[in-house]
Design brief:
This is HTH-type transcriptional regulator BetI. Keywords: DNA-binding, Repressor, Transcription, Transcription regulation. InterPro entries: BetI_C, Homeodomain-like_sf, HTH-type_TetR-like_transc_reg, HTH_TetR, Tet_transcr_reg_TetR-rel_C_sf. The chain has eight helices and no strands. With about 200 residues, it is mainly α. It has a domain of about 140 residues: Tetracycline Repressor, domain 2, CATH 1.10.357. Helix 3 runs antiparallel to helix 4, helix 3 packs across helix 5 and helix 5 packs across helix 6.
Length: about 200
């Protein structure tokens, strides 16, 4: 009886290998050959799952974006608006080793997405939906009967996105976890400003 292979699981394993290689050595480290070797596949077997490095990179990018979205959407619905906003902001910040590593992968792939319209569109779509969700949550947390479209709400959303992106960049320059206290303090101060 032939062995049953879970092809979706194999694709996920390949994506995890690509993430690991990107974290350790950057985009150039994730060659088809290095992925095949690290995944333990025979040469040519990778083509059965992904037809090119770009396809693996796109799947890796999508995987990290999906993980970020899952963190943001897995908040307890019984939280108060300010607690829900805090959880949403924390999900995008490099506050634990897993999110720091995911941020590193995204940063490496952002550069690659400049020359890849499909990846650039995925990232723009994420930023657009992230900003819209932030505006909804900020308006609810401020409790000032503001519309999510209010200019002050949009300014806060843009600040949070910029700080989260900057925090992920800064985390690349420091040992893993070195800046967590700073970012936690920023989030505390931000929530106080929004609640006032």
């Amino acid at each position: 009886m032939p062995k049953i292979i879970d092809h979706d699981q194999r694709r996920r394993e390949i994506v995890e290998v690509a993430k690991k290689l990107i974290i350790e050595g950057g985009f150039e480290a994730a060659t088809m050959r290095s992925i095949v070797t690290a995944a333990g596949f025979a040469n040519g077997a990778l083509k059965h799952y992904f037809d090119s490095k770009d396809a693996i990179i796109a799947a890796t990018f999508q995987s990290v974006l999906h993980e970020t979205e899952q963190h943001m959407s897995s908040l307890d619905p019984s939280l108060s608006p300010i607690e829900a906003l805090r959880g949403f902001v924390e999900a995008a910040m490099p506050l634990d080793p897993h999110r720091i590593k995911s941020g590193r992968v995204l940063l490496v792939l952002w550069e690659h997405s400049v020359a890849n319209p499909a990846l650039a569109r995925q990232y723009r779509d994420l930023l657009t939906s992230w900003r819209a969700e932030l505006c909804q949550r900020i308006a609810a947390a401020r409790d000032k009967c503001e519309s999510p479209d209010a200019p002050a709400v949009g300014v806060l959303a843009d600040e949070i996105i910029s700080v989260a992106i900057g925090a992920n960049v800064a985390s690349l320059m420091h040992p893993v976890g070195k800046l967590i206290d700073r970012y936690s303090a920023y989030i505390d101060a931000l929530m106080e400003r929004i609640a006032d």
